[in-house]
Specification:
Blueprint: E1 6-10, E2 15-25, E3 40-48, E4 57-62, E5 69-76, E6 79-82, E7 85-89, E8 96-103, E9 107-114, H1 124-128, E10 135-140, H2 146-152
InterPro entries: YopX-like_C, YopX_protein
Domain YopX protein: 5-147
Protein name: YopX family protein
């Protein structure tokens, strides 16, 4: 079974938290017309060890909604790959962004959005499972928003 794991930046803890994502509605909404985006809070549920002699405790952290990304199921040199990560590949001039959704009109899943050219394959498994390519994660869009300009260019966002 595939592990459904997310990460999000907690401003309270000042670090990334990894676990299950849920969107909490802080207001009792009785009618559909009353539901507003400001009522919803992004949260990650995770486990944390307190002391070696005690069991893990389950924690909930408020996270920045724009920082939340799903785990792609792939690791690269021991580093887990999440939505919003920026990847470079040898032989390709510009980096790409890991995304989830529909791509190439008929495919759905995790893919790499390469801005350099539309002829590059987008499916993430093609790039990460190849032994001939040198691939690195150089950051993520939340901590390094300037990388989006590096990928798409300032005028192409």
């Amino acid at each position: 079974m595939k592990e459904c794991k997310y990460r999000g930046w907690s401003t309270d803890l000042k670090r990334w938290v990894y676990g299950s994502y849920y969107e909490h509605c802080s207001c009792a909404v009785c009618f559909a017309g009353e539901d507003k985006p400001e009522y919803h809070q992004a949260r990650i549920i995770f486990e944390q060890i307190v002391d070696w002699s005690f069991p893990y405790r389950t924690m909930i952290a408020d996270v920045e909604p724009e920082s939340v990304g799903a785990f792609s199921g792939y690791t690269l040199n021991g580093i887990e790959i999440y939505e919003g990560d920026v990847i470079t590949c040898s032989g390709i001039k510009y980096p790409g962004i890991v995304k989830y959704g529909k791509y190439d009109d008929s495919h759905m899943g995790f893919y790499i959005d390469w801005a350099e050219s539309s002829f590059l394959r987008k499916d993430i498994c093609y790039w990460l499972e190849s032994e001939n390519r040198s691939i690195k994660v150089i950051g993520n869009l939340y901590e390094n928003p300037e990388l989006e300009d590096k990928v798409y260019g300032k005028d192409k966002r």
